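Encode chain A's predicted structure.
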Amino acid sequence: MAYRSKYVGKYAGLGRMVSRPWLAKPCRDAAVKIMNVAQATAPVGDPAEDSHPGWYKRSFDVVPINKNVPFRGQPRQRFGARVVNTAPHAWRVETGDGRVPRYATMGKAIDAVKAAHRG
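Encoded structure for chain A:
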């Protein structure tokens, strides 16, 4: 009979770990990887038809976030990072509409980075 190990997590210890400021750097590094993949696959308009070709591609940025996540009734600070696109037409490029096809650049970038780390 094979021995089956059990893992019993300590939520208080995990909570203390994810609320440390040093965790902000690995979160930012992961967000920068996603941003680089998104920029590489971002669509660029034809200069003959588009008055701002490459605007969407140049508008990616990584923003640090601090979020209060309640745990057992008390707010806990969590550090992280978010990839954003500040172009005013970014939602059209991501979701598509009648004039612009759906590219889903951010979603595809997240999937690509996930697939690269699955090993």
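The first helix runs from residue 11 to 18.
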